[in-house]
Design a protein that fits this description.
The chain has 583 residues and is an alpha+beta fold. The protein is built from 10 helices and 34 strands. The relative contact order is 0.11.
Length: 583
């Protein structure tokens, strides 16, 4: 075996016995394994630290071009540079609403150009001087935005990275440096080993393990850093982040959920989904109590049709009304033919015959007395006439009881909600046959188990099981417990949606007490995979971050965030459910 002499670089032969020495073999293997990874995998621009490092924000790589992001209390401006053309997206900072028909001027590098509006609501600027060059360049940029209600001046900088050719040049230079370093390390290690074998030098023996340790731990030594890399401890990215960096820029134009749980949503996607935000502001809000309730009919605009006697049902002209049919007050809904036994009918017929006979006699007596006017007192003639009239009325009443039908009429105008009749049906007295309600005049009845709520109602609203909001007006409450609960009634304000009597609702009663919180729309609140209540914060132009919060319902449309938000946070007020579906 031959080695290089550090002075004359001459070759000489080493004793095979010394080669077989176990220490020599161990140190040779240590040297081999310490140099191979570094000489084989080293390269400029590579990351040899502790896994794949996130070298730039993922949002910046998702469009394939340098980005310009400027903000003010009124305007949020995002610029994307591609092939010398700068595409601008101007939105209102508070609401994320696109600013249309704006006059946008950009000034940079002594040049001043005006942006042209595109059909999709964006603006484009031809900026050839911002193209990528050999070295990274930072350009100062001044943008003025003038639109309806907006007059703002934004100042910032745009970093344009260098081209890849320079990076490849550094790769070759770094590779050459590592090759020379590896050869020098091999020569030095050989010299130290020779000194240890020949002279049994104790100092050399001590230096040899130290030098090998430096080679094995070269990644922790700053002297081995190369290619402008930082081999210190850096935050590690997850496989999802590494995968995103490898996706082509054209494919990264779609929204994506980042490894930290946040969401990258390009501006065109935000406008397609209709993402809108609002600024959080803490204030005193009326404390709300949630009650269980149901829809009930207004007694002033509803009624029941019941039979006053036993009988047989008969249909009116046009047939029976059906459920959902509109009827007017006084309209005949059905007839009842009185039902009686044969004995009762016989007795009534006998009474009718007796009345008829007495009526004939009374009429004859009246005629005779009328012929004797002047000789008979006037009072006798009037008594005879009255008796004849009475018998006639009694006969008509008895005859009606035998053959006349009873008409069942609608008590109010409205819709038929119940119709339990068929032709020929025999019913009993007081049996409910029809119910009529006015669907535009309904109420909500709720029960409160906390009697302290009495006198504390400041307002109320309700929401159905299908999340349909109802505006309520407090009518009154009972001062007598019913099943250990306090009944309360509320009127439904117009317009009244399609509801059903008995339908359960959730009643939100606003009391006179107050709490401190940030009101946000009900649609802002979502649930994460763990079932926790969250809202989405607009962290940057194209990045949304989930935030865990504690909320309390205020009404059917609004909730109060008690914990988790601060003043000035931009909360997604519209489109939060769509953001939660992005994977």
């Amino acid at each position: 075996m031959t080695v290089f002499n550090n002075v004359g670089c001459a070759m000489r032969t080493i004793n095979p016995v010394s080669m077989a020495h176990p220490t020599f073999a161990a140190w040779a293997l240590a040297l081999l394994f310490s140099l191979l990874p570094q000489l084989t995998f080293a390269g400029g621009g590579d990351d040899h630290s502790h896994g794949n490092e996130v070298k730039a924000p993922i949002a910046a790589t998702a469009t394939g071009g340098p980005r310009l992001e400027l903000k003010s209390p009124d305007v949020e401006l995002l610029g994307i540079l591609q092939d010398g053309k700068l595409t601008l997206y101007a939105d209102r900072y508070a609401s994320n609403e696109p600013i249309r028909n704006a006059k946008i001027e950009l000034e940079s590098g002594g040049r001043k150009v005006q942006a042209q509006a595109a059909q999709d609501g964006s603006y484009t600027v031809a900026a050839d001087w911002l193209k990528q060059s050999g070295k990274p360049v930072r350009h100062s940029v001044v943008v003025s935005v003038q639109a309806d209600g907006v007059d703002d001046l934004l100042i910032g900088s745009l970093e344009v990275p260098g081209t890849k050719s320079e990076a490849h040049g550094r790769d070759w230079l770094d590779t050459a440096k590592w090759a020379v370093g590896g050869i020098a390390a091999a020569i030095l290690l050989t010299v130290l080993f020779k000194l240890m074998l020949r002279r049994k030098n104790v100092a050399a023996s001590a230096l040899l393990p130290l030098f090998a340790a430096l080679l094995l731990g070269g990644h922790g030594n700053p002297s081995f850093a190369h290619g402008d890399e930082d081999h210190g401890d850096k935050p590690k990215s997850t496989p999802a982040a590494a995968a995103l960096n490898n996706v082509p820029a054209a494919a990264q134009a779609a929204p994506v959920r980042l490894p930290d749980g946040s969401i990258f949503a390009p501006k065109p996607v935000q406008r397609l989904l209709g993402i809108r935000t609002m600024l959080g502001e803490q204030r005193d809000i009326a404390k709300t109590v949630e009650l269980n309730g149901h829809i009930s009919a207004d007694p002033n605009f509803s009624g029941r049709v019941q039979s006053s006697q036993s009988g047989r049902i008969a249909a009116p002209a046009g047939g029976f009304p059906t459920i959902g049919m509109k009827v007017n007050k006084g309209q005949i809904l059905a007839y009842i033919e009185p039902a009686a036994s044969n004995i009762d009918k016989g007795n009534q017929q006998a009474q009718l015959a007796e009345l008829a006979s007495n009526l004939v006699l009374a009429e004859q007596r009246t005629q005779r007395l009328e012929q004797l006017v002047g000789s008979v007192p006037r009072k006798e003639i009037d008594a005879a006439r009255a008796e004849a009239a009475s018998l006639k009325a009694r006969k008509a009443a008895v005859a009606a009881s035998l053959f006349q039908r009873e008409a069942l009429r609608a008590p109010v105008s409205g819709m038929v909600s119940r119709a339990d009749v068929v032709a020929g049906q025999v019913v009993e007295a007081r049996e409910v046959l029809f119910e009529v309600i006015d669907p535009a005049r309904l109420r909500v009845e709720a029960v409160a188990y906390d009697t302290a709520l009495a006198g504390q109602v400041a307002g109320a609203s309700a929401v159905t099981a299908g999340n349909q909001p109802l505006a309520l007006t407090f009518i009154g409450q009972s001062y007598q417990l019913r099943e250990q609960a306090l009944p309360m009634q509320f009127g439904i304000q117009a317009p009244v949606p399609a509801l059903s009597v008995g339908q359960p609702v959730k009643v939100l009663v606003q009391t006179r007490q107050t709490i401190r919180g940030i009101p946000v729309p009900q649609g802002s609140v979502t649930k994460n995979s763990s079932g926790e209540t969250t809202v989405w914060l607009h962290a940057s132009a194209e990045r949304f971050v989930p935030q865990k919060v504690k909320v309390q319902a205020l009404d059917a449309n609004t909730v109060a965030v008690l914990e988790g938000l601060h003043d000035g946070d931009r909360v997604v007020a519209q489109g939060a459910a769509l953001l939660s579906q992005i994977r």
